[in-house]
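Objective 1b. Sequence-to-structure analysis of MIT domain-containing protein.
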Amino acid sequence: MSFFRELIDNFSSIFSDSGSPSNRANQIPSSSNYQNRAAMEGVENERAAYKLKGYFDLAKEEIDKAVRAEEWGLIDDAILHYQNAQRILGEAIATPVPSYISSRELEKVKSYRQKISKWQGQVSERLRTLNHRSGSKISHFF
């Protein structure tokens, strides 16, 4: 976070209208605090959607591994990969979303949450089927 603040402070000092260092020092505290806050909120807004996308992509990779393991007849491996995907999707659902998120980002977040919920249900169903079929003693992570 401090890296971003330094970066923003450096850019604001470079692009400030005032040429003299004393005027620049007087302007930065009032305007840069607002700019920093606005920039940090923008970064935080983007992070919510990117974080959900990251969880979603990670879960899809685990699901792909599970499907391949099933195709190869490695049911226990498939169950483990589905359980990993289930944990990842559970973390994604539990990820908090800032209340001040922009409407555009909120739509992205809603879209990812819907996809994640749908996939979570499908993974749960697949785990039940595989556990029933294999008679496995592997515990569930629901």
